[in-house]
Inverse folding.
């Protein structure tokens, strides 16, 4: 790798990191605003016009909060778990393509790819990193030595492991269609037709499984505030809590990006809008749906969640894979 | 799993409350958990004990009204009514027709408000956020009406011995008419969000089942009893305030699970609206307060302009009045169930003994029975479904 290329990669990493952090911050505001308007209230209104400075105010507040470590906590895992939940989530962004390539309106001599790196096993990498992030929550729930957190952590472990399976199965159809695990190639294959048309069941499974992976309503059992108060992060405060929080919202962005790349044709769309805008629009729609669900649905019970995961999602995933494979063979 | 000596205990003891979002107040549940299964559930009460019954012995009959507001603070009008009816029974006071109709209007408005509060918080317990805000929107309208009429929203002390404190205004009647016309549509909105929602049904069906026999044996009243399929309502069984003149149905459930309790309460809101519509159609003219010397307060305009009335008012307010000796028990259908006042009078201006029969307390006592061997999430659903207010449980 030439020094020039390394500089480019570092710049890309910094830009994407900054962008993701900004979107995470404003996703919280977006969620609060959307929820508020669905619930006949206004949401944050005081920090800046219509509360647009609220995420920054929240950030400053969380940063200066006292960092509490409970007496009986397991120190190592207590410190480790927030990092374990946010770092893998951010690492996923390394393979996510945000567009094809750009010369930044002619500023650069050679076009630059709009992803940090192009892995040929990109999708596998995404799932691997997502799997590691689970540990953060399980360790966190256990390390605080708090009964509510423990219940939350145990719930999270069971839920994330079972929905990880469904999550993976849901995208197999896409892999079969594209014949590749490379995310950029998968997008390129959708130039003429988005995969959501060929894989409607896969998309629905993906959406449900990703909501479950994100631990959001109706699958928010690990942090069910009316049962477990705050679940796995009950005793975390200050930046450690903020890290869990950021990890959650960064995962929303990850899931929306993956959904866009796999099913909604990535940056492809009618040419009256630039590709990057198309991409952002699709990501936004998916994020909106995830937030919308929170305003509408009650929470499932633990055993119902498991039953749904193992008895509905996973068999449907298998059926989808076999149906896709058979159709592919017949067409060829 | 904890290890004590050589013995391995598989149970985890979890204190749920007194500060816990789902206990709706300061209830403490001592849970013995095996995994997430509740093996044993011991409600521990008393965190909100204010000694209302004992205080009642040291305050005059008139002063006690304000304590009743704070029993079940989501249904203060009904509490006022129950207490006023008990004292009126003791003194043999005949309440004027106009006051009786106004009392019915207030009690039914309060019933709707209490059920709305329950529905909102219950949906929040189960995880559905938005219903809470929609319910509070309508509850707000009712509280505004209370404010119009009594100056207070939560603790109106509006219904008092012998009648009601102030006359209703045209402004109030207009607000009431608008509310009655639109309310059924709002109930339909809540039902659209919840009744057929598969997750909602899944969470509530067959949870915390209380059979009709058990419900009676535990002494439950109110929606909990009716959801178990027992058609019993004090408004029908022992009509007061002229409830016998109104047409309304008593909704009952079939199974006695949380879902039935939800359906019963939603239907009760509609029926209350039906009663309201009938009551506001013809409100008779006349006085709003019975004129019983030295027990009921004289009208305010007379107090301001007439020295005899002023003296009378002063003497009553200062506790210089006497009620007949004797003892009474009178109970009404509160939003939560039976609220009864047992008052023993020794002839002075203060009760010798005041005992409050609270449905919340009785219904709560059936909770451990209902929730044996259920999951933590079911326990929350069950606790919400019996609809307790700790102010009334602890008194």
């Amino acid at each position: 790798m030439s020094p020039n290329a390394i500089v480019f990669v570092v710049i890309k990493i910094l830009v994407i990191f900054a962008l993701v952090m900004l979107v995470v911050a404003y996703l919280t505001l977006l969620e609060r605003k959307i929820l508020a308007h669905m619930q006949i209230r206004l949401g944050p209104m005081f920090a800046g016009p219509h509360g647009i400075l609220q995420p920054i105010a929240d950030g400053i507040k969380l940063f200066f909060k006292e960092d509490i470590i409970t007496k009986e906590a397991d120190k190592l895992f207590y410190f480790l778990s927030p990092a374990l939940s946010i770092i893998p989530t951010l690492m996923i962004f390394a393979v996510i393509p945000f567009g094809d390539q750009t010369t930044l309106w002619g500023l650069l001599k050679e076009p630059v790819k709009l992803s940090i790196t192009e892995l040929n096993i990109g999708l596998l990498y995404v799932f691997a990193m997502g799997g590691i992030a689970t540990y953060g929550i399980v360790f966190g729930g256990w390390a605080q030595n708090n009964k509510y957190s423990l219940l939350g952590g145990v719930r999270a472990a069971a839920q994330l492991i079972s929905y990880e399976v469904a999550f993976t199965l849901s995208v197999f159809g896409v892999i079969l269609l594209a014949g590749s695990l490379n995310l950029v190639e998968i997008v390129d294959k959708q130039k003429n037709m988005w995969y959501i048309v060929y894989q409607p069941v896969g998309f629905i499974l993906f959406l449900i499984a990703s909501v479950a992976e994100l631990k959001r309503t109706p699958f928010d059992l690990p942090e069910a505030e009316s049962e477990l108060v705050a679940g796995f992060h009950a005793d975390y405060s200050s930046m450690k809590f903020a890290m869990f929080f950021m990890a959650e919202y960064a995962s929303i962005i990850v899931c929306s990006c993956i959904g866009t790349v796999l099913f909604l044709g990535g940056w492809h769309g009618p040419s009256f809008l630039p590709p990057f805008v198309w991409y952002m629009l699709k990501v936004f729609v998916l994020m909106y749906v995830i937030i919308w669900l929170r305003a509408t649905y009650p929470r499932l019970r633990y055993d119902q969640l498991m039953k749904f995961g193992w008895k509905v999602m996973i068999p449907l995933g298998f059926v989808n894979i076999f149906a896709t494979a058979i159709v592919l063979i017949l067409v060829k | 799993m904890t290890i004590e000596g050589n013995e391995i205990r598989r149970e985890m003891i979890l204190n749920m409350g007194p500060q816990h979002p789902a206990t709706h107040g300061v209830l403490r549940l001592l849970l013995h958990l095996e995994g997430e299964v509740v093996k044993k559930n011991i409600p521990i009460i008393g965190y909100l004990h204010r000694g209302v019954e004992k205080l009642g012995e040291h305050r005059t009959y008139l002063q006690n009204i304000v304590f009743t507001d704070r029993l079940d603070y989501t249904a203060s009008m009904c509490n006022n009514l129950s207490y006023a009816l008990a004292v009126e029974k003791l003194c043999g006071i005949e309440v004027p027709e106009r006051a009786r109709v106004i009392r019915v209007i207030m009690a039914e408005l309060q019933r709707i408000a209490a059920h709305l509060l329950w529905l909102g918080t219950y949906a929040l317990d189960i995880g559905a956020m938005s219903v809470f805000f929609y319910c509070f929107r309508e509850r707000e309208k009712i509280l505004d009406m209370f404010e119009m009429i009594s100056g207070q929203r939560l603790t109106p002390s509006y219904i008092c011995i012998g009648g009601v404190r102030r006359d209703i205004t045209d402004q109030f009647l207009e607000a009431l008419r608008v509310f009655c016309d639109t309310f059924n549509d709002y109930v339909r909105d809540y039902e659209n969000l919840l009744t057929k929602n598969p997750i909602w049904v899944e969470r509530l069906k067959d949870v915390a089942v209380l059979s009709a026999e058990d419900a009676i044996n535990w002494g439950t009243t109110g929606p909990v009893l009716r959801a178990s399929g027992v058609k019993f309502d004090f408004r029908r069984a022992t009509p007061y305030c002229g409830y016998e003149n109104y047409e309304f149905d008593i909704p009952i459930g079939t199974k006695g699970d949380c879902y039935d309790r939800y359906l019963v309460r939603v239907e009760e809101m509609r029926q209350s609206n039906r009663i309201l519509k009938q009551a506001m159609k013809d409100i008779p003219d006349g006085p709003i307060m019975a004129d019983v010397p030295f027990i009921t307060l004289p009208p305010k305009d007379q107090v301001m302009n007439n020295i005899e009335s002023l003296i009378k008012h002063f003497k009553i307010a200062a506790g210089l009045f006497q009620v007949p000796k004797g003892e009474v028990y009178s109970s009404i259908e509160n939003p939560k169930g039976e609220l009864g006042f047992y008052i023993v009078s020794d002839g002075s201006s203060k009760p010798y003994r005041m005992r409050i029969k609270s449905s919340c307390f009785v219904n709560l006592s059936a909770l451990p029975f209902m929730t044996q061997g259920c999951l933590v999430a079911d326990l929350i659903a069950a606790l919400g479904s019996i609809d307790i207010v700790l102010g009334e449980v602890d008194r």
About this structure: Chain A has a mean pLDDT of 84. Residues 3-38 of chain A form the longest helix (36 residues).
